[in-house]
TrEMBL record, chain A:
Membrane topology of this protein: Multi-pass membrane protein
Record GO cellular component, one term: glycosylphosphatidylinositol-N-acetylglucosaminyltransferase (GPI-GnT) complex
Protein name: Phosphatidylinositol N-acetylglucosaminyltransferase
Species per Swiss-Prot/TrEMBL record: Ectocarpus siliculosus (Brown alga)
Transmembrane portions of the chain: 137-160, 166-190, 273-290, 302-322, 334-350, 356-373, 382-402, 408-427
Superkingdom, natural source: Eukaryota
Family (UniProt): Belongs to the PIGC family.
Automatic annotation (TrEMBL), chain B:
CDD domains given in the database record: GT4_PIG-A-like
Native organism taxonomy: Eukaryota, Sar, Stramenopiles, Ochrophyta, PX clade
UniProt KW keywords: Glycosyltransferase, GPI-anchor biosynthesis, Transferase
An example Gene Ontology molecular-function term: phosphatidylinositol N-acetylglucosaminyltransferase activity
EC numbers for this chain: 2.4.1.198
Origin species: Ectocarpus siliculosus (Brown alga)
Record's protein name: phosphatidylinositol N-acetylglucosaminyltransferase
Keyword Lipid metabolism recorded: no
Domain PIGA GPI anchor biosynthesis, chain residue ranges per copy: 43-132
Biological or metabolic pathway of the protein: Glycolipid biosynthesis; glycosylphosphatidylinositol-anchor biosynthesis
Length: 449, 396
């Protein structure tokens, strides 16, 4: 099989180059039992040869029969008898060349029905829009998963150490407050400026925070995102939570609609603080109820449930939200509920009301508010995103190592699997990707106004 | 000439009336007329069971299988085998001919027949992509079944290329034999054009996404605004009918856009002859028999250039457009003066010369000859050819 087909135009040249690059790709795959790819290669080679030779050297036209005469037929040859006709036709064939094959059905053509034209599969396009796989991108996108695994592990290990009595109430509440205000400040600093047009997803260089602050003050009271107090009260969470950022108390799911972090003006900060302290008070008052909630259940039941719920949380978490690839609506209501449920269950095993208060607050920060902050961080800078990830993995690993070395190994293994092994694996299987497009595909309809 | 005893197998047959069903019926009739013996095997429909004879002694076996989804049977593994074997022996069949990729009975029949040493032909009527889950699954199945086929038939060149890639068949094992229509059933009648004094555009298809109804709605709206003497007649029914009625309601076009609902097959012609232009907006189409019927009724055709449609009619009879609203409106605007000039009787004569079932039957006969000529693959060869397509199914 030889390629003597000359590129006729830019399109053909494009196709030829596409074929060659595909062939190079396919050559790698051949060892791995890619029957289809082989077949395509073979077909293309066959088609090219037929086009170059122009004759019927491949035996495709072996059982070519002459067309029936038709008034409008382009090739009208007189017909007498079966063998006579065939002989005549054969002689005529040698004398004058056949008209070129056309890709039409309405014309009788002097070619057999199973003739393979040179243009066969010319419109076949493979892997046209497949992007070059980028390992760095894969790794960065796994950070969201690593972060969430770390968050769950961190919560569990903090619970264990609290139960062991290694973390005092004071430390815990301090850490809670520190995280809360630290996180709030981070979001305040890195959150991209949003204007009245409501453009989200500004990913470019962030202007100075002072200018941003000014802009916020200017737009204060506009409420450009149509967020009234409508979402207050009931939401996906089911657990009545305060809002540490918005103006009105909302559920965590209500808060997590992506706009919850927009309004950072001074008056909203003060009202946020007010509602935050109200929420703290409610949580503190409810702490004794939470502590005695599961008193009649055995420890084993609670631990088993908590672990199951943790896995549920990890399985259904909205990772695309944290990766800023979704539209900005947090979809992980089920996973958030599972996490909060697990936190309440575990907190009910603690012995003092203050510890219950501290642990539930910690869980809320970790599972409800932290993803929002991490989304903003990732939007701001990938480097910061990576450092937040390591800032989560290291203390989690350390605490876990101190408490439970075996679990630490499992945790470390999971992190390595998620961050290193899985991206490499994905990169490896990318080469088997064969996307086939051609004239048979369903055309896409764009929405018309 | 060798007389064949052909057994057509397909889930889809009369009393259903669709493209595949009509194809099998017309092909069988023409093969019978040419002196072959034809039996059809399909599954039972409601009270239509057992053996029935249709026109010209076409024998139809309605075997007791229960259709589950969309007129398709459940895969029976081996339950279909005994009755199938019984029929093949009783009718002294020489060649088994399966139809349509989405027909379970056809796939099973091909496997069973090949195992019993019969020659097998197969006709593909549709195009399938490579991206959605259903197509991926079906394409795997195709690879599994198609290596048992001696010769395959596709209704258009695009369909043939599609089948080659889907089933990894060598292209010389596939013939392109187009569909046809019965021109005597689709004769033009310019006097029947109604309403008078307007240019009437007929749209006739199932009103579903694949037929491009999402394009039809804005096209109709824009064209009605642009040309005050256009009249639209829309036949067919389906989930997208709502979209068209909404468009008509919003644009106050009740007097200019008729939505007829489902049109029985026998009345299709009487609707077609009312128009000057036939508009087809399909997003994918293997052959598109509708534009052929319309052209035979003397209508000028405007169609999206998708799938095998560009192969069907010659340039002077059809105007192509990309499947976008802008392109379709432009093409339709261009078509209006052309449609005024078109002579219906000439259109009809051209279609009659281009397509006929007798011709299809003759070419199918040649395809059968190719199937009989093909060297019978040994059992080991069949296993080998199956093996790479699906890891273990070759040994099932």
């Amino acid at each position: 099989m030889h390629h003597d087909q000359q590129p006729q135009g830019p399109l053909t040249a494009h196709l030829v180059s596409r074929l060659e690059s595909t062939e190079a790709l396919l050559a790698e795959e051949r060892a791995s039992n890619q029957a289809l790819s082989d077949e395509l290669l073979r077909l293309r080679a066959g088609g090219a040869t037929a086009a170059g030779g122009g004759g019927s050297s491949d035996g495709y036209d072996k059982d070519y029969d002459s067309p029936r005469p038709r008034p409008n037929s382009s090739a009208g040859t007189p017909v007498e008898g079966g063998t006579e006709r065939a002989r005549r036709q054969g002689r005529a064939e040698e004398e004058r060349p056949r008209p070129p094959w056309q890709n039409v059905l309405y014309k009788r053509q002097p070619y057999a029905d199973n003739h393979v034209p040179g243009s066969f599969l010319e419109k076949l396009v493979t892997n046209a829009y497949v992007r070059q796989p980028d390992l760095r991108l894969y790794v960065i996108n796994t950070f969201a998963v690593t972060q969430q695994i770390s968050a769950v592990t961190l919560f569990l290990v903090v619970f264990m150490r609290t139960q062991d009595g290694l973390i005092s109430v004071g430390t815990m509440v301090m850490v809670d407050l520190l995280l809360l205000f630290g996180g709030y400040a981070t979001v305040f600093l890195v959150s991209p400026k949003r204007n009245n047009a409501g453009i989200s997803g500004v990913n470019g260089a962030a202007p100075g925070s002072l200018a941003r602050l000014k802009g916020r003050i200017k737009h204060e009271g506009d409420d450009p995102y149509g967020r009234g107090g409508g979402s207050g009260g009931s939401g996906g969470g089911g657990v009545p939570l305060g809002n540490d950022e918005g103006a009105s108390p909302r559920t965590a799911a209500g808060l997590a609609d992506g706009n919850g972090l927009d309004d950072l003006s001074l008056s909203s900060v003060s009202s946020t603080l007010a509602s935050f302290f109200l929420f703290l008070a409610i949580l503190r008052i409810m702490a004794p109820v939470l502590r005695t909630l599961t008193v009649s259940y055995s420890d084993d039941t609670i631990y088993a449930l908590a672990v199951t719920l943790s896995f549920l949380h990890l399985a259904f978490h909205d990772y695309s939200y944290a990766n800023t690839s979704s539209s900005g609506h947090f979809q992980g209501t089920l996973s958030l509920n599972a996490a909060i449920f697990a936190a309440v269950l575990l907190a009910s095993r603690l012995e003092s009301n203050e510890k219950v208060f501290g642990l539930v607050l910690f869980a809320l920060e970790l599972f409800a508010f932290f993803p929002l902050a991490r989304r903003e961080v990732k939007r701001h800078s990938l480097l910061l995103h990576a450092s937040v990830t390591s800032a989560m993995v290291l203390p989690t690993g350390l605490l876990l190592y101190l408490r439970h070395p075996t679990l630490f190994t499992a945790y470390l293994g999971t992190v390595v699997l998620v961050t290193v092994a899985c991206p490499l694996w994905l990169l490896r299987v990318q080469r088997y990707k064969l996307r086939i497009e051609g004239p048979w595909d369903i055309a896409h309809v764009e929405a018309h106004p | 000439m060798r007389r064949h005893r052909v057994c057509m197998v397909c889930d889809f047959f009369y009393p259903r009336l669709g493209g595949v069903e009509m194809h099998i019926w017309s092909l069988s009739q023409c093969l019978l007329r040419r002196g072959h013996r034809v039996v059809v095997i399909t599954h039972g429909y409601d009270n239509r069971k057992g053996v029935r004879y249709m026109t010209n002694g076409l024998k139809v076996y309605y075997v007791p299988l229960v259709p589950v989804v969309d007129g398709d049977c459940m895969p029976t593994a081996c339950a279909f085998f005994p009755i199938f074997r019984q029929i093949l022996i009783r009718e002294r069949i020489t060649l088994v001919h399966g139809h349509q990729a989405s027909s379970v009975m056809s796939h099973e029949a091909i496997l069973f027949a090949k195992t019993m040493g019969y020659r097998v032909a197969y006709t593909d009527h549709s195009l399938f992509g490579f991206a959605d889950a259903a197509s991926i699954h079906l394409n795997k199945l195709m690879k599994f079944t198609m290596c048992s086929v001696d010769h395959a038939i596709c209704v258009s060149n695009t369909c043939r290329e599609n089948l080659v890639v889907r089933a990894t068949l060598p292209p010389e094992k596939i013939s392109t034999i187009p569909n046809a229509i019965d021109p005597s059933k689709f004769t033009p009648d310019p006097s029947a054009r109604f309403p008078k004094g307007t240019i009437n555009v007929v749209i006739m298809s199932r009103l579903v996404y694949r037929k491009g109804i999402d394009l039809v709605a804005p096209v109709v709206k824009i064209m009605c605004e642009r040309y005050p003497n256009l009249h639209f007649i829309i036949g067919g029914d389906g989930p997208k009918r709502l979209l068209l009625e909404e468009m008509r309601e919003k644009s106050q076009l009740h007097d200019r856009v008729e939505i007829l609902g489902a049109v029985p097959h026998a009345r299709v012609r009487s609707v077609l002859v009312r128009g000057h232009i036939f508009l087809n907006c399909s997003l994918t189409e293997s052959f598109c028999i509708a534009i052929l019927e319309a052209a035979s009724c003397g209508l000028f055709v405007v169609s999206t250039a998708v799938g095998g449609v560009p192969e069907v009619l010659p340039g002077p009879m059809i105007k192509f457009a990309e499947p976008t609203v802008e392109d379709l409106t432009d093409a339709l605007s261009d078509a209006i003066p052309l449609a005024r000039k078109a002579v219906p009787s000439e259109f009809h004569a051209k279609v009659r010369d281009m397509y006929s079932w007798a011709d299809v039957a003759e070419r199918t006969e040649r395809a059968y000859e190719r199937a009989l000529k093909a060297p019978p693959p040994s059992l080991v060869r069949r296993f080998q050819s199956k093996k790479p397509s699906i890891a273990h199914s070759g040994w099932v």
